[in-house]
């Protein structure tokens, strides 16, 4: 705990035995910058006047007018233990009479020891015969003078030495650890507090202000060990007393009176003496940090004190949740208590316990919530959400909000495993009731946040099957929870504005997080139309923005069903009307939110909505000149139209070329017949008969003799709506034969072996093409597959 101050490199050292050299010294004063100033070389001696022993030094350079050596300093030898001998040739001290840090660097070690023993004799202290009192060997003394270290000295605590103490304690940062070590030694704190008691008894305001500065500086030393002692039960209240005398405040503060008389500790459940003592200490440290010292604390000291608070809170929480008897008593009493005031105190106690648990480690935090859940905390809180006392409701909601942020999976697990509550979704319905009916707006907002966290489809916070079950509770039932929330949209009134705002925020979240479930609900209930109907001139701005955010969430989902529904029902019309009602040439919050929707449609090129917006509102937006969004929409619209026109022309040209026979090669014949095959059922092909007609073959379905009438009707029914296959003439042998699954070639002119080879090759090619066609058809349109 000591620090170093370096003397200049020309400080004298040596081991000369000359008697004159023994008294030869260099004198140094410590300046305000913490550096040592050389005050000259001379000879030191001890003298005695009528009452005291004096130490003086005569300069060997400066002379008086009579030719005698000039005295550099003269001071009384203090009876206090202020002197230190270091490095064999140094004596340092803080002179209480000159109020100056001083050092004598001797030319010889023997001269230093001689003067040192003289001082000790005068003080009545034992002398020393060891020339290396503060060292372990002679080899340590061969260093250069800038390695000589000087230690700080704290004056003995007295009312007359308060200024000197204040000066030492407010030394530079590099000295903090050394000073903290001195404060912790020799019962220095007890002596300082005794001096404070004397000053307070004498009502010495000036001294009390100095004591404030001293203890303020001690706190700002930011030494962990020192703060731990100051914050102990023995010193904390005494420290509060010293800090009542702030010279910058017009009057004395009454921190001790407040902590001892006005603060009342409510013990709703019996606690152990150790836990109660820790609670008292933690509260007082928080009071010190937040009330007494906030103006004067630097960041480092604030962080250190805050760490003390956190560690104390962790100790309290771990002591409580590991006490099974305590938890059982707490929640049994909370479940059975009927007195509203007592319920309020119990719930507030749980709230404070959960708040302190935020700083626990992840493992301890999980254990904490699991223990509380096991003893029925969430079961009790579900009932407290509807408690008539507002403070109890606020505390219960805050507990759920913090729990959902820390461990949502534990709440989900409780909702699914508690048979009494899971049977009729009571917990979820109580949360919904709090959103819809509670008069406190802050409770509504917190409950919506809880619902978002519980419904969030993020497997990081829980198992997917567990989340799916919770979603089933939310979207299932009659009426469903989401339906109960959405019904508030249909009840516009000034009292429902805040509720509608929070519900819209939740619905927008659901559109993003629960794609399929929410889409079904939105489409069945026409939620988009109901929501945009809220956009009236008298609607508050924050509610208008919530409506726009909901619509944007729908648009951003890029779902074709949503887009078709918006276009068909013209759901963007109310937004456009609101845009122009707010002022088409104005930048404001609502208009910016609406523009963001059109900007998204433009950037993401949402074709269906882009065409709809330009065709329905393009003329209205032509007058908007202060941004390029609508001009870009018009340009993209023209590009789409141009592209569509070119595609139609290309299709017409291709069809005309086909009709004119300009591309009638074997590949055209094969493609046409492949199309005929895809339009034919497999069962039809299995029963086809091939009749030779010169160089052509005609395929047509036939009925066998054993086919029933019902089978014939079924076959006719399957082919009733299908266009009959075209009859094509192909010269034998054709490069690409019609796709036939089973054929018995009966051509008279063909060689039997050649016919077999051609038939085998044709069947292989046909099967290969059919497999490719089936695969492609499966990808593009599953409904067009041949019926088997």
TrEMBL record:
Domain of life: Eukaryota
Source species of the chain: Eutreptiella gymnastica
Serine/threonine-protein phosphatase 4 regulatory subunit 3-like central domain sequence ranges: 171-639
A single GO cellular-component term on record: nucleoplasm
Ranges of compositional bias, category Basic and acidic residues: 762-774
Broad class of the protein's primary localization: nucleus
GO molecular function list: protein phosphatase activator activity
Region (Disordered): 644-704, 717-788
Subcellular location: Nucleus
PANTHER family in the cross-refs: ATP SYNTHASE GAMMA-RELATED, SERINE_THREONINE-PROTEIN PHOSPHATASE 4 REGULATORY SUBUNIT 3
Protein name listed in UniProt: Serine/threonine-protein phosphatase 4 regulatory subunit 3-like central domain-containing protein
Limits of the PP4R3 EVH1-like domain: 23-123
Biased composition (Acidic residues): 671-688, 750-761
UniProt KW keywords: Nucleus
């Amino acid at each position: 705990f000591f620090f170093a101050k370096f003397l200049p490199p020309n400080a004298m050292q040596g081991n000369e035995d000359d008697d004159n050299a023994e008294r030869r010294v260099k004198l140094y004063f410590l300046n305000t910058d913490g550096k040592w100033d050389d005050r000259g070389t001379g000879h030191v001696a001890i003298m005695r006047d009528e009452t005291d022993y004096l130490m003086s030094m005569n300069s060997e350079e400066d002379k008086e007018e009579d030719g005698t050596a000039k005295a550099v300093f003269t001071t009384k030898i203090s009876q206090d233990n202020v002197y230190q001998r270091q490095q064999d040739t140094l004596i340092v001290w803080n002179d209480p009479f000159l109020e100056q840090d001083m050092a004598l660097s001797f030319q010889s070690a023997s001269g230093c020891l001689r003067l040192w023993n003289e001082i000790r004799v005068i003080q009545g202290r034992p002398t020393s015969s060891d020339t290396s009192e503060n060292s372990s060997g002679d080899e340590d003394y061969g260093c250069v003078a800038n390695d000589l270290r000087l230690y700080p000295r704290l004056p003995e605590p007295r009312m007359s030495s308060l200024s000197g103490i204040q000066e030492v304690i407010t030394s530079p940062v590099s000295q903090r650890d050394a000073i903290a070590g001195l404060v912790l030694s020799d019962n220095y704190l007890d002596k300082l507090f005794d001096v404070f008691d004397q000053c307070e008894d004498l009502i010495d305001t000036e001294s009390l202000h100095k004591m404030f500065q001293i203890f303020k500086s001690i706190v700002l030393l930011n030494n962990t060990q020192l703060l731990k002692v100051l914050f102990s039960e023995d010193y904390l209240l005494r420290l509060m007393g010293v800090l009542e005398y702030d010279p910058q405040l017009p009057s004395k503060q009454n921190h001790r009176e407040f902590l001892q008389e006005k603060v009342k500790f409510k013990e709703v459940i019996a606690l152990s003496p150790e836990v109660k003592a820790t609670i008292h200490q933690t509260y007082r440290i928080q009071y010190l940090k937040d009330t007494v010292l906030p103006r004067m604390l630097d960041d480092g000291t604030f962080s250190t004190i805050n760490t003390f608070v956190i560690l104390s809170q962790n100790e309290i929480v771990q002591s409580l949740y590991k006490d099974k008897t305590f938890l059982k008593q707490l929640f049994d009493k909370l479940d059975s208590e009927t007195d509203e005031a007592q319920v309020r105190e119990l719930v507030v106690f749980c709230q404070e316990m959960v708040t302190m648990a935020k700083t626990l480690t992840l493992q301890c935090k999980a254990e904490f919530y699991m223990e509380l859940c096991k003893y029925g905390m969430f079961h009790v809180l579900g009932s407290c959400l509807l408690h008539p006392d507002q403070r109890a409701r606020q505390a219960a909601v805050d507990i759920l909000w913090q729990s959902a942020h820390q461990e949502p999976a534990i709440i989900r697990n409780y909702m699914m495993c508690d048979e009494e509550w899971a049977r009729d979704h009571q917990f979820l319905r109580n949360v919904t009731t709090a959103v819809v009916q509670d008069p406190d707006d802050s409770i509504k907002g917190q409950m919506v946040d809880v619902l978002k966290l519980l419904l969030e489809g993020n497997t990081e916070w829980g198992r997917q099957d567990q989340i799916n079950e919770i979603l089933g509770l939310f979207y299932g039932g009659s009426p469903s929870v989401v339906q109960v929330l959405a019904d508030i949209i249909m009840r516009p009134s000034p009292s429902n504005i805040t509720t509608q705002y929070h519900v819209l925020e939740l619905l927008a979240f659901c559109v993003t997080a629960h794609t399929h479930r929410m889409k079904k609900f939105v489409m069945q209930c026409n939620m988009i139309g109901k929501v945009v109907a809220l956009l009236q001139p008298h609607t508050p701005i924050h509610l208008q923005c919530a409506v726009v955010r909901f619509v944007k969430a729908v648009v951003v989902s890029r779902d074709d069903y949503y887009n078709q529904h918006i276009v068909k029902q013209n759901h963007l019309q109310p937004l456009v009307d609101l845009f122009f009602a707010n002022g088409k040439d104005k930048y404001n919050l609502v208009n910016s939110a609406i523009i963001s929707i059109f900007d998204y449609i433009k950037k993401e090129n949402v074709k269906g909505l882009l065409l709809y917006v330009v065709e329905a509102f393009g003329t209205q937006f032509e007058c908007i000149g202060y941004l390029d969004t609508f001009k870009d929409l018009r340009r993209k619209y023209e590009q789409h139209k141009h592209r569509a026109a070119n595609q139609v022309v290309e299709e017409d040209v291709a069809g005309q070329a086909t009709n004119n026979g300009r591309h009638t090669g074997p590949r055209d014949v094969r493609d046409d017949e492949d199309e005929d095959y895809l339009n034919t059922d497999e069962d039809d092909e299995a029963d086809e008969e091939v009749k030779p007609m010169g160089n052509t073959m005609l395929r047509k379905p036939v009925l066998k003799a054993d086919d029933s009438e019902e089978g014939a009707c079924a076959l006719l029914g399957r082919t009733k709506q299908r266009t009959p296959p075209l009859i094509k003439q192909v010269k034998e042998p054709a490069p690409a034969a019609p796709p036939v699954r089973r054929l018995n070639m009966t051509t008279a002119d063909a060689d039997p072996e050649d016919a077999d080879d051609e038939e085998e090759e044709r069947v292989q090619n046909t099967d290969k093409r059919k497999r490719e066609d089936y695969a492609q058809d499966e990808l593009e349109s599953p409904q067009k597959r041949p019926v088997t």
